[in-house]
Specification:
two-stranded antiparallel ribbon, little secondary structure, two-stranded antiparallel sheet, 14% helix
């Protein structure tokens, strides 16, 4: 008799333990999803967003905020397994142009800072001092000032 009571007791405990081990993390089903493709009822629990497989699955089509990555095991990943960019798309010295989908350097924005008509050497031009509008290729030399006004690497020639 004691043996039968103990069996019943342990069977009850085991049954309760198995019921308690259910999946509590999944959201409860709310019935028919409004956005369900087939319009039918769910299978019991909402599936949530689709998990990413490759980086392209995470792309948000915003260039300037950087490239999103598919890293489902990362602690920072969202429900899809996507992680936002570590850094903006452009370097600190560049300007991001969302419409063009590219980073613009100072040369793209202003290759001739001093407006003398010559692009600076740093931007592929020949202006050897783009902060001074009197110094550019073809400028007249000013005698005895020890400055190369015409950017030919010679001082005061023709004086």
């Amino acid at each position: 008799m004691l043996r039968a009571v103990l069996r019943l007791f342990f069977a009850t405990i085991l049954s309760l333990a198995l019921l308690a081990c259910g999946d509590d993390d999944a959201p409860l089903d709310a019935g028919v999803d409004a956005a369900a493709e087939d319009g039918g009822p769910d299978a019991g629990r909402d599936a949530g967003p689709a998990r990413c497989i490759r980086d392209a699955d995470c792309e948000d089509d915003v260039f300037c905020n950087g490239r999103e990555r598919c890293l489902p095991d990362d602690l920072a990943a969202d429900d899809r397994g996507c992680v936002g960019a570590d850094a903006p798309a452009c370097a600190e010295v560049e300007t991001c142009d969302e419409e063009l989908g590219r980073c613009l350097s100072e040369c793209d924005l202003e290759g001739d800072v001093d407006d003398d008509g010559a692009v600076s050497i740093a931007c592929g031009g020949a202006d050897c001092d783009d902060m001074d509008d009197t110094i550019f290729p073809g400028a007249d030399e000013v005698c005895a000032d020890e400055v190369d006004q015409d950017c030919d690497d010679r001082l005061d020639e023709g004086c």
